[in-house]
Hints:
Layout: E1 2-6, E2 9-13, H1 15-30, H2 35-42, H3 46-58, E3 62-65, E4 68-71, H4 74-84, H5 89-103, E5 106-113, E6 116-124, E7 138-139, H6 145-151, H7 156-166, H8 179-192, E8 195-198, E9 205-214, E10 218-228, H9 234-258
Antiparallel strand pairs: 1-2, 3-4, 5-6, 5-10, 6-7, 8-9, 9-10
Amino acid sequence: MHDGTDGGTPWRSVDAVKTSCTILEELYQLNEAGVTELAERLDISKAGVHSHLATLQEEEFVVKNGDKYQLSLRFLDFGEVAKRNIDVYDVVETEVSKLSERTGEVAQFMVEEHGWGIYIAKERGESGVRTAAYVGARKHLHCTGVGKAILANLPRERVDDIIDKRGLPPKTENTITDREELYEELESIRSAGVSVDDEEILHGVRCVAVPVVSQRKGLLGAISISGPTSRLKGEYFDEELPDIVSDSSNVIQINAEQL
């Protein structure tokens, strides 16, 4: 066990729970795996891995197919509940859908949790490109338009904490990996009210993002449009899209004030 505090309240972490969570995380990364593979990757005894998996299977958090284990569909239920706990989710879902239809591109909404950017809504328009992002996916914040829009509206100490914990790993040669350079970028985003990802996470893809900030509720997240550099360019990318995405952000913000 490890001692710690949570808002001033002492607590002790439980190693067995941490091991189960580590196994679940590894299954999430691998999609499926057997006892031996997990034991080798996590440096845990096969007996220990088997005991945790058997318990997780009994509690219906994993399923076994042959000699492989996978996450169970119970996590879908958990995910839906988690989304519904976001009180502006219905408005976000509607605006993301409208934005993708209006532009024909991929519209997304991201929130920050535990220093990750989490996509809670995504819609692909008729011309939208397929990307690896999906609802529930966790991404580093520094390399996406929505992520940088979020970082730009967090306190400096919180940004420092996130960088210390998650780092600034490169995704492409355009990714900002220097802390001071990122601070300058975030200052520009705060001034402009718009964030741009110019092939910083995926080659050939650009993104325009706008934060959603409520006077009553603070930072809610960020909304964006992503598309190929062949279409997101020139005046459309620099002027028209920021206005279009800002319209959607404003609608979500107004609705949030009423909740």
